[in-house]
Amino acid sequence: MKPILEFRGVSRSYESGSGTQTVLRDVNISIFAGEFSAITGPSGSGKSTFLNLCALLDEPTTGEIYFDDVPTSGLSEALLCNLRKNAVGMVFQQYCLLPYRTVLENVLFRFRYLDMDSAETRKLARNALAMVGLEGFEDRSTHQLSGGEMQRVGIARAIALKPRLLVADEPTGNLDSAAAAQVMRCLQQLGEQGDIAILLVTHDESLLKYTSRHLSFNDGLLTECE
Amino acid sequence: MMACLPSVSSRRTPPLFVDIWEGVRSRPGRFGLSLFAMSIGMAVLTTLIALLVGLESRSQQLSSQLGTNVIAILPKAQADRKFLLTTHAQLLRENYPGSKVSGVRHTTATTSGTDRSLSVVAVEESFFAIRQWPIIAGRFFDQSDLQNRKRYAVVTQALLRDWQWGVGDTILLKNTPFLIIGVVGSEDSALGGEYGDSRLITGETAIFVPITVASHWDDSADGSEPIDALYVRPPSHVPASQVLPGLQNLLTQPDLHLQALSWIIPASLIRNVKQMQGTVGLTVGAIAVLCLVLGGTTLTSLLVANVRERIAEIGLRRAMGATERDIALLFIAEGCAATVTAGVLGSLSIHLIIVQELALLSRFPFELGIHTLLLPIAFSVVLGALFSCWPAMSAARICPAEALRAE
Description:
The complex is a heterodimer.
Chain A: E1 5-16, E2 19-31, E3 36-40, H1 47-54, E4 62-67, E5 70-71, H2 77-87, E6 88-91, H3 103-108, H4 118-131, H5 147-159, E7 165-169, H6 177-192, E8 197-201, E9 213-218, E10 221-225
Parallel strand pairs in A: 3-8, 3-9, 6-7, 7-8
Antiparallel strand pairs in A: 1-2, 1-4, 4-5, 9-10
Helix pairs in contact in A: 4-5, 5-6
Chain B: H1 16-26, H2 28-66, E1 71-75, E2 84-85, H3 86-95, E3 100-110, E4 117-123, H4 127-131, E5 135-138, H5 143-147, E6 152-156, H6 157-163, E7 170-173, E8 176-184, H7 189-195, E9 206-210, H8 211-217, E10 226-227, E11 229-233, H9 240-251, E12 261-264, H10 266-309, H11 311-319, H12 324-355, H13 370-396, H14 400-406
Parallel strand pairs in B: 4-9, 6-8
Antiparallel strand pairs in B: 1-11, 1-12, 2-10, 3-4, 3-11, 5-8, 6-9, 7-8
C-alpha cells in the first residue's frame, strides 16, 4: 500500500537573531490511509512544525515531502493550494470559526475557494455535520455552542470535503474531559472509515487510547512509540 | 493522486461580497471612519468635476451667445458714458465696409400700468444680424426705420410671454408710445455675468428700440450720442482675430482718446473661462487631492490594523486553500468597498446640495450629469485599489504556518 504522505530526510530550520535554529531534524516517516496517529512531545519539540509541513502550509529546509508519491517541492503555489483545499483538512485548537456565520455557513467555508455547485456543497456540509452529531444545529450561531460543539463544527468543516489527510492541532486542548472524549470518538470513527489518515497533536497522553499509532517528538527528532 | 490536483483555471470567482460584508460588520467603526474621510474627498472631487465641466460648457455657451465671429468693444470704465460715441461706429463702418457694425446703448424704463423696470436696449439695424438671434415673429428694424426715427420696438420672446404682448401692440415707455414690430429669441443672460460686465447683457426680457430714437428720447442724452458698446461682425471668411488688430489701431489713435477699451472676442471669453478653469482646477483640485490623500492614508492605516487583527483568519483561509492572490484580493476588495461607498455618498451629497440651488453656489456654473456620478465612483475604485495595495500585499505575504500560530 502506498503512503498518503511520506517524509524523506526532512529538516526544518529557521533563521533568528541568535543564528539558525533547527526545529525538525532528519524526519523520515510514512503516513497511510486508515491510520489515526497521535503526535506527542514537549513544547517546542517540533510537533506543530511537523503538522504544518504535513498540511503543506510550510516547506522543508532540506529533504522531500511526498504526497501520494508526488514530490511537493516541485509544485507551484497554485497547485499546493489546490492540493491543500482538496486533500487536506485542518482542525485547530481555538476552533477558528467565523463569528458572524451560522454553523452551516462555517462548514460551507470549507468550499470557499473551490468551484463547486452550491446545492452539492450544502449537502456535503449537512452530511459532515451529521457525522459529528450536530444534525439540527445548522442555523445556530456559533456563539450559542459549547466548546465541544464548536470543535465538532471545526471537524465537520475539515471533513466536509472528505480529505485524504486530516491534521488536528490539539483539538481537545480547550475542552473538558467529556467534550474531549466526544471529539476524540468523532475522530476515531472517521479514522475507522479507512480512507483517511489522521494526524493528531496532543499533550494529553490519555487520548492515546483512541489512536492507532503514536509518534513522539523530542528536540526535533521523531521517534515511533510502540 | 492527480485527482487531488484540479486544474488551477477551474476556479470560479470567489464570493467576495460575503467576505466584504463580514469584514465591514465586524469592524463598523473602523469602516465608518475611513468611509467618512474618503466621502469628504469624493465630495470635493465631485464638486471639482461639476465645476470644470460647467466651465467648459459655459465657454462654449459664451462663444455661441456672443457669436462665433463677433467683436464686442466697450470702455473699461463703466461709468464713462460719453467715452464711446455713435461716430466711432460710423468710423468703423467707413473703414471696414464688409463688416457689420452696431452701437448699443442700455437704459431702463417703466411701462404703463406697472412700476416694473424694463431693460431697454437701443441698437442699430445690423445688431440682430451681428448677434444672429432668430426672429420669432414680425421683423427687425431696417435702415429706413432708423433714418426716420420710427418709434418701433422689438421685444424678446420671454417678455412677450410674461406681458401677453403681440406684434402690432403699442406700449408706453417713459410715456412715449412704441409699436411692437417683431419678437426675437434671445437668451444671452449668461454672457455679461460671465464676463462681469452688465453692458454685455441684454437679458431675456429686453425691449430693443432704434438707437436714433433713443438719442432724443432718452433723458440722459445730450446730443453727443454716447453708446455703451460696439459690436462688429467681420465678413464670414475673415476671422475676428484677424480684424481685431486693425480695429485696435483705428480706435486707439491718440486723437480719439480711446485707449481704455476692452476688446472682447469669443477667443478672449474662452480664454477667461479657461483661466478660471485653471484656477478652479488648481485650488479645488489641491483640496480634493489633500482630502483624498488624507482619506486614503486613513484607509491604509485602518486596513493595516485589520490585517494585524485578522492574522488567524488569514491562516484559516490559507489552510482552506486560499492563494496569496486570494488574500490580497480580499483586502483590496474591502478597501474598494469603502472607497466606492464613499464615492457614491460623496457624489450624491454634492448632487443633492447643488440641486437645492443654494444661494452660495448660484454664482458657480456647476454642471451635473452622468459624468459627475460615474467619474468619482470610477476614481474611487482606483483609489481603493491604490491605498489598500500595501496592506493587501503584506497580508498575502504572511506565512500561513505563522498565521495559524497566531490563532
